[in-house]
């Protein structure tokens, strides 16, 4: 029942798969140099108790427990969008779905990623009120993950129900005109994030040690089409008139 | 109506024998209108238009799938507490491409919905009675192995006589009024915490009947107190409160206005985990007691037994195989075959219900499950497995193929077709046509239990003798003949004596 995922800065031990810490609403996570912190950042320039992340429903808040440093929370997809949390500020609400806490540390910048995949968005149908039956998914049609999802769904949305899915390279190709920085890694990151966001049930094959990325893409597309997350009219995000172009 | 209608249909539009009147409700996939016709019954109905004729090929298959699921469900589930479907029609109107090919479901028309009632009259005096009926509807769905998945006031429709019926139980199309949803849609206030952010597979979210029980708890609290059980001014705040409660960081604080019995019921619906939640059958009994309403008809045994009997058949085959290998003395063992160390730990049909029905007196193993379960489906304490077994012994000596055309009696329970007709359906409705023998035990025995269950409370309280024997005598003749005779009529004394003897044989020591 978690609503917030914290990805601590990579340590030497887990360079391949970064750790993910999941917080349920109301749960707290402290970070800092001290041994008592849930996330230890062994860097001389970081306070012993540097800060605290609190999950509040679908969003989160940051407390800056340091004496002198101001922390910046960036929206990595937000073209410079950021907030500043000064020293001593407690529980500053963070509105982004993706965030990166940047800690200045003696000349270095240390980043902690925080995802809030449960943010709610209005459906395309637009008739949702408090008591209506609501979709179990909520996607932001302006985010890059939506463009990736649309690119994956495109062949099948164009009327070939059993068309083979595009490869990651083809998706990169498709998105590059409007997303110059698109790369295999960034597209793959978005696919992995979508699996978390859409709460894709790990299939039995996930027990295998090697990642079965093909299976994941297939499941995402099938889910997205089945529940109308991506529709024909959404394919405009691929042509650049949608919000994904930045 | 503030929302645009998903399927605009002009007033006066004709489809089949129906004329479209006022709009009733709409959702993302379809819209409901009132329909009238000049001749035939019923004269009014709710017409639900589901557009299947337009759209791109992919959306078309998607919508067709939704419609098919909904229609199938209505066809298969006809229960008194569920809205009924009379007919399905297809619009053939090339002039109107937006309607051409649309599927129209002709549904029973309701007067209003519970949400409309609560809006005008919070805490309605009829609340407890309505809750009992809603719970009965849930029980009817759950017994048929369906989960509603979106129980809330808008999906409880109220008929002209004020009684409640469930609608929108197909989870296939999204609509308010007479409608349904995809399995990954829900209403946050009625969603159990384990489903709030549940994982979703390609086929949708997995949902259990306990989700309906949670929703019923929320709905009951709302109907009785006009507040939600979890605190918060918005659905989002209440969702977070539900999450905090489920994680154990917060306690459940129900309204102090609730009467004690309802408080206990709602508490058992709103447990932190689905496993702790009360199931619908005991829930229904408690709700009916709290509401002070009459007991509803007992559950259908057939579906539950289907699985049990398969297991029983397999196990029986195993037992026969064991006999073939020379372990032949198990029936003479007072404790049944459990004495055989190699026997599987699961309960075999040969020992099923051993606490209430002896295993060593020749009650055939294949019928034990049916006998015990049928008796358990009756709340009358005198209708016991031993009584049913004694009667089957007296009626047919457990002969499933008995055929006595001279007396018009057939099968293991010696059913007469014109009588069986009234008892063969689990929901208490008479069969549409006269049943024809053979009457297999799976039909005969539950029907017998239903009939006995009906007889038991109709026998006068002061009659002398064993109530169970009196019930059996009334089965042979009728309950008023037994009442008139002030006991077993002379003509049936022999029969009664045999029943008494078998009852004694089949009842384990200390059971009665």
From TrEMBL, chain A:
Gene3D superfamilies: 2.60.200.20. InterPro entries: SMAD_FHA_dom_sf (IPR008984). CDD domains: FHA. This is FHA domain-containing protein.
TrEMBL record, chain B:
One of its GO terms (biological process) is intracellular signal transduction. The keyword Kinase applies. The lineage of its organism: Bacteria, Bacillati, Actinomycetota, Actinomycetes, Kitasatosporales. InterPro entries: Kinase-like_dom_sf, Lysozyme-like_dom_sf, Prot_kinase_dom. This is Protein kinase. Keywords: ATP-binding, Kinase, Nucleotide-binding, Transferase. Gene3D superfamilies: 1.10.530.10, Phosphorylase Kinase, domain 1, Transferase(Phosphotransferase) domain 1. It holds the Pfam family Pkinase. One of its GO terms (cellular component) is cytoplasm. GO terms for molecular function: ATP binding; protein serine/threonine kinase activity. It comes from the Bacteria. Residues 18-301 form the Protein kinase domain.
């Amino acid at each position: 029942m978690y609503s917030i995922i914290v990805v601590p800065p990579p340590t030497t031990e887990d360079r391949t798969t970064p750790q993910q810490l999941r917080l349920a609403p109301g749960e707290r996570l402290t970070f800092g140099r001290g041994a008592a912190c849930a996330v230890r950042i062994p860097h001389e320039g970081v306070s012993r108790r540097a800060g605290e992340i609190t999950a509040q429903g679908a969003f989160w808040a940051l407390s800056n427990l340091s004496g002198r440093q101001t922390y910046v929370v960036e929206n990595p997809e937000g073209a410079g969008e950021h907030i500043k949390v000064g020293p001593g500020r407690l529980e500053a609400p963070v509105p982004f779905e993706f965030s990166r806490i940047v800690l200045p540390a003696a000349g270095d910048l240390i980043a902690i990623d925080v995802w809030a995949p449960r943010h709610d968005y209005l459906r395309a149908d637009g008739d949702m009120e408090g008591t209506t039956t609501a979709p179990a998914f909520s996607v932001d049609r302006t985010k890059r993950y939506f463009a990736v999802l649309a690119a994956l769904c495109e062949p099948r949305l164009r009327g070939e129900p059993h068309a083979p899915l595009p490869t990651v390279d083809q998706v990169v190709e498709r998105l590059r005109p409007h997303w110059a920085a698109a790369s295999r890694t960034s597209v793959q990151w978005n696919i992995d994030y979508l699996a978390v966001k859409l709460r894709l049930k790990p299939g039995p094959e996930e027990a295998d040690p090697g990642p079965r990325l093909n299976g994941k893409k297939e499941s995402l597309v099938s889910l997205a089409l089945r529940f109308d997350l991506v529709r024909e009219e959404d394919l405009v995000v691929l042509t650049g008139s949608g919000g994904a172009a930045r | 109506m503030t929302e645009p209608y998903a399927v605009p249909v002009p007033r006066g539009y004709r489809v089949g024998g129906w004329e479209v009147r006022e709009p009733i409700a709409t959702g993302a996939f379809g819209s409901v209108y009132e329909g009238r016709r000049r001749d035939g019954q019923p004269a009014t109905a709710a017409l639900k238009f589901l557009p299947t004729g337009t759209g791109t090929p992919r959306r078309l298959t998607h919508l067709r799938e939704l419609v098919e699921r909904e229609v199938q469900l209505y066809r298969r589930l006809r229960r008194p507490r569920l809205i009924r479907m009379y007919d399905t029609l297809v619009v053939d109107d090339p002039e109107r491409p937006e309607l051409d090919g649309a599927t129209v479901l002709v549904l029973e028309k309701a007067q209003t919905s519970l949400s409309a009632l609560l809006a005008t009259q919070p805490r309605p005096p009829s609340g407890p009675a309505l809750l009992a009926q809603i719970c009965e509807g849930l029980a009817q769905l759950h017994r048929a192995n369906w989960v509603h998945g979106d129980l809330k006031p808008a999906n409880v429709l109220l008929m002209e006589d004020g009684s409640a019926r469930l609608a929108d139980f197909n989870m296939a199309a999204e609509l308010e009024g007479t409608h349904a949803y995809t399995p990954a849609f829900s209403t946050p206030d009625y969603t159990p915490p384990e489903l709030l952010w549940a994982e979703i597979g390609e086929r949708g979210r997995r949902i259990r009947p306990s989700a309906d029980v949670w929703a019923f708890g929320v709905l009951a609290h709302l109907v009785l107190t006009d507040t939600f059980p979890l605190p918060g001014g918005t659905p989002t705040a209440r969702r977070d409160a539900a999450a905090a409660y489920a994680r154990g960081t917060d306690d459940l604080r129900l309204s102090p206005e609730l009467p004690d019995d309802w408080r206990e019921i709602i508490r058992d619906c709103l447990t932190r985990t689905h496993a702790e939640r009360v199931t619908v059958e005991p829930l229904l009994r408690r709700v009916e007691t709290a509401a002070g309403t009459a007991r509803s008809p007992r559950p259908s045994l057939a579906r539950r037994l289907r699985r049990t009997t398969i297991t029983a058949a397999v196990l029986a085959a195993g037992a026969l195989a064991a006999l073939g290998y020379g372990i032949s003395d198990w029936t003479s063992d007072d404790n049944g075959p459990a004495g055989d160390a190699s026997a599987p730990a699961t309960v075999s049909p040969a020992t099923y219900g051993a606490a209430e029905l002896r295993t060593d007196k020749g009650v055939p193993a294949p019928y034990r499950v049916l006998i015990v379960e049928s008796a358990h489906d009756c709340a009358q304490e005198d209708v016991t497995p031993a009584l049913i077994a004694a009667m089957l012994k007296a009626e047919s000596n457990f002969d499933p193929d008995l055929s006595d055309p001279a007396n018009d009696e057939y099968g293991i329970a010696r059913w007469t077709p014109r009588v069986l007709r009234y008892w063969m359906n689990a929901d208490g409705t008479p069969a549409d046509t006269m049943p024809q023998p053979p009457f297999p035990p799976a039909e005969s025995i539950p029907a017998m239990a239903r009939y006995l269950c009906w007889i038991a409370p109709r026998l006068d309280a002061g009659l002398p003798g064993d109530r169970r024997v009196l019930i059996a005598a009334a089965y042979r003749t009728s309950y008023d003949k037994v009442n008139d005779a002030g006991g077993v009529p002379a003509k049936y004394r022999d029969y009664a004596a045999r029943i008494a003897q078998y009852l004694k044989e089949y009842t384990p020591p200390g059971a009665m």
